[in-house]
Amino acid sequence: MGLLRAHRATAWVDSKGTHPTGASMPVVASGGVGRRIAYYRSVMRPQMTQKQLADAARVALGTIRKIERGERGVTDSTLEAIADALGVDPGRLRVDRLAAHSRVREALPALSAVLATYDIPDDGPVRTVPELRAAVAGAVRWRVGAQYTRIARDVPDLLSELARAYNAAPGRLRSELAELRVMAYRSADAVAFKFGAIDLSARLIELMRGAVPEVGDPLLAASVAYVRTETFFAARAHGAGLRALEQALDTVPSPATAPEIAVRGALHMRAAVIAGRACDASAAVTHLDEARALADQVPEGIYRGTAFGPDSVRTHEVSVAVSLGDQHVSRALIIAAEWKPPNDLPAERRSGFYIELARAQLWSGLVDDAFESLKVARHIAPQHTREHPWVREDAATLRRLKRADIENLTNFAEWCAAT
């Protein structure tokens, strides 16, 4: 049970790295892990001390010190507890990043099984609605932070628990639980779509769409329409995707409150990108202008599960320029010369910016700059970067073109499975 594992991961671990029960756990070699832990601890704002990390992770202070010095290995449970305390995906702390990749893929069948029984879940515990709401909020944070290992580990069990809660709830609570299921489905979809399980992603989106009418929230319906665009991207049905988004825009309430402004703006932002993929420059510019005007009215933030604001729109300007190609690509380079995504923008947004920028740089003959952008994207969100098809394509192209720094480029290409 993923959620139970998450709770066990935060149980106190002694200086030998064992659970109070004495059970042995898989051990990850330290060294590089220790250096990564020390790095992420040092860049916390404010900087986190070893003692604060030990207290937050419920791990002995001596254990933290030895791990950071590379003097001892790290059990999976200890690593997950430390990652939770640092607010990063456990995969970012591992020396063998492929382990995190494998764990996500291995979890996909379990996710499929949960969806197959979405209306007849297994028996099990059910937390209170406020507790479930907090758990779903955590899954949303993992999604926008590109922490796919956590989603793969915990969300399947969360979906089962939400199904049990929904089936047992009185009518007055069903609407709220249906909304929580939609949000949890969306986090699961992030893993399915990013890791190439397109049919599973489509199934999750249909479950989201099926639950929306019970919630009766037009903003949630618009957010699901935003996510549905993935199916059009996957099928390369860009014209149909643009029509679907424009239909969704017709149903969104007139923008008065910040959430209404942001949800409408996010749809325009998404429509601009898919219009670019459809080679409809006029529509792309029109939707981007609408998104920009709306973004100027709200602060950057997460609205109905989607990041929106001036910085998010700026990242999408680069995406639109790359989607349109040809003479538009120079616009991406101009934006990057003047602006970089701030650190408080969600990791998935920031890594996506550098992935798009790398493609613009490659097309412009800026081979070294393109490789640097890919490395920045990898540093920000390694799993998102590794699974992005453009990264594989561009790394393979760079490998064919590049002559200097060939060893690092080869290592990068092998890391993202570029051919």
Short description:
This protein is an all-alpha fold and 419 residues long.
Verbal overview:
- It is built from 21 helices and four strands.
- The chain folds into four domains: 1-95, 434 Repressor (Amino-terminal Domain) (Orthogonal Bundle); 96-216, no CATH class; 228-339, no CATH class; 346-419, no CATH class.
- Strands 1-2 form a two-stranded antiparallel ribbon. It has a two-stranded antiparallel ribbon with strand order 3-4.
- The two termini are 37 Å apart.
- The longest helix has 24 residues, at 171-194.
- With 419 residues, the chain is an all-alpha fold.
- 71% of the residues lie in helices and 2% in strands.
- The model is unreliable at 1-29 (pLDDT under 50).
Total number of beta strands: 4
| Mean pLDDT across every amino acid position | 88
> What's the overall geometry?
globular
Radius of gyration: 22 Å
Unreliable spans are 1-29
Strand content: under 5%
Task: List the defining traits of the structure above.
mainly alpha, 434 Repressor (Amino-terminal Domain), two-stranded antiparallel sheet, 21 helices, globular
Q: Which SSEs are present, and which pair or pack?
A:
Elements: H1 2-9, E1 27-28, H2 32-42, H3 50-57, H4 61-69, E2 74-75, H5 76-86, H6 97-116, H7 129-144, H8 148-168, H9 171-194, H10 198-215, H11 218-235, H12 238-251, H13 258-277, H14 281-295, E3 301-303, E4 306-308, H15 310-324, H16 329-338, H17 347-363, H18 367-380, H19 382-387, H20 389-401, H21 406-415
Antiparallel strand pairs: 1-2, 3-4
Helix pairs in contact: 1-5, 1-8, 2-4, 3-4, 3-5, 6-8, 7-8, 7-9, 8-9, 9-10, 9-11, 10-11, 11-12, 11-13, 12-13, 13-14, 13-15, 14-15, 15-16, 15-17, 16-17, 17-18, 17-20, 18-20, 20-21
